[in-house]
Write a structure and sequence with these properties.
The protein is of the alpha+beta class. It contains eight helices and eight strands. It has three domains: 2-157, Regulatory protein AraC (Jelly Rolls); 162-211, Homeodomain-like (Arc Repressor Mutant, subunit A); 217-270, Arc Repressor Mutant, subunit A.
């Protein structure tokens, strides 16, 4: 495992961003960090993965999987641990303070293609932050502000580009909950490759395609249980569940009651 750190020698301030620390990390399978009571000077951390795979565990969120080209920004106080998943995880770690309005949505794993000029800016920030010359730390903060703006701009363009396609897919799923919906079919509707579609819909909904489809079907099932006299088995099969027993298990997990007990509980409240 190889770590390099650049740290400001004295307090500094930029009108919008205060960059305090940069780590350049080349981690191997031994890299497994359990968070201690200590926290960085600044509350926010941005991780930009350049190669390999890592996982960061956020309180009340769970595990976030980071791969090449991923970006995630989070509040360090909410981190439980982070570790390399596989043989390698190479990333830049930025500790900073900023007006929250400047930041992309926290705890979301975004995918933005890394360009050479972005890596060059990272290293310019690193060198400036570690330099003892006057105003060098402020220079680093200004450069990092430029990086943040670039990230926000890229995410905005990507969101505008993908939102229409994803909304079309989500509308199709909602209107066809009982259909045999495959990832291949949905990616064609979105006019994306299957890999890109999986990444985009997960970023858009915070769920895998399979989980999103299952949740749509479960909500449709709930409405049928409440508003019709259909048998539970008929509801399950009509919505594409493989069998009644699997349906009952996932329904109970989400709503806290079996389908039959959910219906009985609803009817008892009407009396």
């Amino acid at each position: 495992m190889f770590n390099v750190m650049s740290k400001a020698a004295s307090p500094h301030f930029s009108p919008s961003v205060e960059l305090n620390t940069i780590w350049i990390v080349e981690a191997d399978e031994t890299y497994n960090i359990e968070k201690t009571a200590n926290t960085p000077t600044n509350p926010y951390v941005a991780i930009r993965t350049t190669e390999g795979n890592g996982v960061i565990t956020i309180k009340d969120i769970g595990d976030l999987s980071l791969t090449q080209n991923s970006l995630v920004i989070f509040n360090y106080s909410e981190v439980k641990k982070y570790y390399c998943e596989g043989s390698k995880w190479c990333f830049f770690w930025f500790e900073f303070n900023a007006d929250p309005i400047m930041l992309p949505k926290l705890n979301n794993v975004h995918t933005i293609e890394i360009e050479k000029k972005e890596i060059s800016l990272f290293h310019e920030c690193f060198d400036a932050l570690g330099s003892p010359t006057p105003f060098s730390a402020r220079k680093a903060s200004c450069k990092f502000s430029t990086i943040l703006v670039s990230w926000i701009s890229s995410l905005s363009i990507k969101e505008n580009t993908h939102s229409i396609s994803i909304e079309k897919v989500l509308k199709y799923i909602t209107q066809h909950p009982s259909s045999n919906i495959s990832i291949s079919k949905l990616s064609k509707i979105a006019e994306m490759s299957e890999r890109l579609f999986r990444d985009v819909i997960k970023e858009y909904t915070q769920k895998s395609p399979k989980k999103y489809i299952e949740d749509i079907r479960l909500n449709a099932a709930k409405e049928l249980i409440i508003n019709t006299n259909m048998q539970i088995k008929t509801i399950a099969l009509s919505l594409g569940f493989s069998n009644q027993y699997y349906f009952s298990r996932v329904f109970s997990k989400v709503f806290g009651l079996s389908p039959r007990n959910f219906r009985n509980d609803f009817l008892s409240k009407l009396k």
